[in-house]
Amino acid sequence: MAETGHKPALLSQKLLKPGSSASFRGEKVNLKPNRGCTRFWRRNHLPDGVLSVNVMSMSVVKVPSILLAEDDYNDVFFMERAFKQSQIANPLHRVKDGEDAISYLKGEGEFADRTRYPLPYLILLDLKMPRKNGFEVIQWIREQPGLKRFPIVVLTSSKEDPDINRAYELGANTYLVKPVRFEGLVEMMNTLKLYWLILAEKPSMD
Predict the structure, then answer these.
(1) Quick one: fold of 66-199?
(2) CB atoms < 10 A from the CB of 203, how many?
(3) pLDDT band for position 48 (50/70/90)?
(4) Within 10 Å of residue 33's Cβ, how many Cβ atoms?
């Protein structure tokens, strides 16, 4: 996974046993064993973006988030379900339009807290959104020195060649058309996970 720029947080320095608990930033965390008791997956909950605890190094594995820019609540609902079925562990943050997408990436307004709203690894971007559309968001991202290599995955219902060509011309990395059936969306998310989250090399954002 790509580095988020945050140093891994530490649990209390003591031997953790199956079924034990530990304190993480003042929060009591119950743990259960996995893979020979060398790693513990969250049982109740860990803070957003924390996937697991490595007992040997006592460090927390940070997982980069994904930003979903989508104005259709039904599409958001099915996307969240598809993430779960595809076992994508990356936290999914959602914004409802292009204006909010830019505010999120800038870290301003309600998105100023980078602990709650970390800079994502990639954005899943709808094109037909109010205020600012997806094309405007792509153009804005590519004009920012710190985001010019930021991965942009267009996820839209449009199959029109002019939309496809314009998105790529502006700097989109991938153009995906929303499947009609939920099973197709799950399959698409499995492919996205394999390529973008496992196989693809991650660019630096410096």
Answers:
(1) Rossmann fold (3.40.50)
(2) 12
(3) low
(4) 16
